[in-house]
Design goal:
3 domains, 5-stranded mixed β-sheet, 9 helices, 255 residues, 4-stranded parallel β-sheet
Length: 255
């Protein structure tokens, strides 16, 4: 055998559920016959066709369940199934805590809306793809992105490929795919940094020194209830925007 020569084999693969939508148009048929290098992992083959491993819930090879490291030898019949909806068992923490997210640079509007609903959502426009993958891996965060290449990184263990482009529809998409509509906790996190909000007492010295200077004098005349972020010390109150945000939350939860 010539040095560097690699045997090419044929694999039959079927994508189920909504996974065919992620394939190139010409490959969106029921059964694909794919030529690939022998001893290639099934995960590598699936991702080469356009489907990130984070979107895959189960893989069958010759009707037997396998993990993504399974090595293909040729002639196999592969079936790929999406993550079930809702994806509680796949993406929610085992300790039943609410899921925690990290958004890429293009999803800042989504990040703010998830914070509005009470979900810890990390975002920083300075983070590049490598940093996003590292942070998601280290902090056990669910990576949200529309970039398939980002989700294909080996370090990314949990992630969602966001299908919608509209931020409002993106929120609903996540609530439905993860089945987390019943555990939202609105107005408990800072929209700017995702820190936890705590009530602020006007008579406290901390309020007088740190928070009061942020509040317009007219607001101090009528408003008696304030909350502040324990991380960035931003102060919040129920202003004219509160009713709008409340309607927005009801819209998300009504779907």
């Amino acid at each position: 055998m010539l040095r560097g020569y690699q045997t090419t084999v044929t694999v039959h693969i079927l994508f189920n559920g909504d996974l065919p939508e992620l394939l190139p148009l010409k490959k969106r048929k029921k059964n694909l016959t794919v030529k690939c290098v022998c001893k290639r992992s099934v995960k590598d083959l699936i991702q080469s066709l356009g489907v990130p491993h984070t979107e895959v819930g189960e893989i069958l090879v010759n009707n037997q369940k396998v993990d993504s490291s399974y090595v293909l030898l040729g002639g196999e019949k592969v079936e790929v199934f999406p993550v079930p909806v809702p994806a509680e068992s796949h993406l929610q923490p085992s300790n039943n805590d609410p899921p925690r997210f990290i958004c890429d640079v293009h999803l800042w509007k989504l990040a703010r809306r998830l914070r509005l609903l009470g979900f810890d959502t990390w975002f920083d426009q300075r983070w590049d793809d490598e940093e996003l993958a590292d942070i998601a891996h280290r902090e056990k965060l669910i990576l949200l992105t529309r970039d398939r290449g980002l989700l294909k990184r080996n370090k990314v263990e949990q992630g969602l490929l966001i299908r919608n482009t509209d931020p409002e529809k993106q929120v609903i998409e996540i609530l439905q795919r993860l089945g987390i509509g019943k555990i939202v906790n609105p107005f408990t996190r800072c929209l700017l940094c995702s820190g936890i909000l705590e009530p602020a007492a006007r008579e406290d010295q901390f309020f007088q020194k740190k928070l009061k200077p942020q509040i317009p004098a007219k607001v101090l005349e009528w408003c008696s209830e304030f909350h502040f972020c324990v991380s960035c010390e931003k102060v919040f109150w129920k202003g004219s925007h509160y009713k709008k945000l409340t309607r927005l939350i009801k819209k998300y939860l009504a779907v």
